[in-house]
Task: structure prediction
Amino acid sequence: MNKGDYYLYGIGYDPAPAAIVSGGTSVSIKWADRKKTTTVDIAITE
Result:
């Protein structure tokens, strides 16, 4: 990815409560990190 500010959004299905879950978070990628692999945790809600 290119350097910059991003908003990551996810949506899915959780079979335990039989509910659709979704969430998102903002991420900033710096020039020095643009070619690195980055792991981001996204909090979700039911």
Observations:
- The longest strand covers residues 4-14.
- The mean pLDDT is 91.
